[in-house]
Amino acid sequence: MNPKAKAELLPTGTLRVGVNMGNFLLVNKNAEGSLHGVVPDLAQEIARRLGAAGVELLPFPGAGQVADGAKAGIWDIAFIGAEPARATEIAFTSAYLEIPATYLVPAGSKIRTRADVERLSTFDVLHPDAGHLARGPQEPRRAGRRDHHGP
User: Fold this and answer.
1) Which domains does the chain have, with CATH numbers?
2) What is the three-class DSSP state of 10?
């Protein structure tokens, strides 16, 4: 690896990794408090390939907080969805995985397809920092927005 790139990725010798705890498909905490899942496994492998002295997993409650950590220089790498607005502060790689997602609607809803959602005047966003939800309806300017921060 290019020594300049390695020095940029490992300024402390330990790979500091921003972890979005808001996505249980990628990371979870066990009873002892240790993180496990796709993200910790990828972080360990990247650190190994870089020859890092170790890995420090830095948990954040959501993708927005992880992104904010970039400005403060808290982490060296992180695992969050690439978003144009975040790309002004963060250099994104190509995707490391795809997560199939769908809409959940109440029983009896008239919503059956994505086109049905796109015709609605209002759509729900489960969390404002979840980048993948920002890519909801194709024409979000036409749609209203209601944020849900709880169950």
Assistant:
1) 3-88 (3.40.190.10), 101-151 (no CATH)
2) coil
